Amino acid sequence: MIFHLMPPGVSVPLVLLIVAAAAYDVRCRRIPNWITITGGCSGVAMNSFLYEGWSGFRLSMAGLAIGFASCFALCSLRAMGAGDVKLMTAAGAMAGPQNWFGIFVTTVIVGGLAGLALVAFRGIPPRKVRNMGFILNEMKNGRASYHANEEPDVRSMKSLVMPNTVRIAMGTIVFLGLSIQFSR
To answer: Among 133, 112, 127, which Cα is nearest to 159's?
Structure first.
């Protein structure tokens, strides 16, 4: 099962971490290191000392490593910014590997739905449809789309409509809600 109930002592700081990062990112278009480092260290400390001991430390470090490795790959393709990688790494340290995977999958789904809602609300210019096709074609051919087109590059101001941290925050909150619902 993808939904595992986290202790409230981890869930609440996780929500505070992602909401603080999202609010800062929306306002300043960056995520400061002090937020992500504090979140990662808090996750390791909470899981190690408050809940699980040595096994909590290992789970926390595994979540941190999986979060970093998975998101670093997306950052290398410029599909995600470095601050988002650090945020998902900190979330992995708090949530552990199983819950991090659930958060990631839920974030992808919720973020995709939010993107579709945004497109439906604002209307979609034909250029954006061409960009989606271009990105998929480049991925199929094993190439990064940002080499030939600036718009799919997360570093380009042309590509930024909704910060990834907002999607991460929505996905994490939905995941936590679903994990409570399905763990009953």
So the answer is: 127
Extract the tokens encoding 121: 């609300």
pLDDT of residue 34: 94
Whether residue 137 is contained in a domain is answered as yes
**Domain count along the chain:** 1
Tokens at residue 160, please? 């930024």
Name the residue with higher pLDDT: 114 or 87. Answer: 87
Place of tokens 């909470």: 46
- Tokens (6 digits) for 67: 């979060």
pTM: 0.76
Are residues 50 and 57 in contact, defined by beta-carbon separation less than 8 angstroms?
no
What the block records as the tokens of 169 is: 């925050």
Report the distance separating Cα 83 and Cα 94, nearest Å: 17
Average pLDDT for residues 90-99, to the nearest whole number?
90
115 alpha-carbon distance from chain centroid: 15
Assigned domain for 174 exists = yes
Amino acid at 170: M
C-alpha span between 119 and 84 (Å, rounded): 22
Closest by CA position to 32, among listed 15, 17, 14, 16: 17
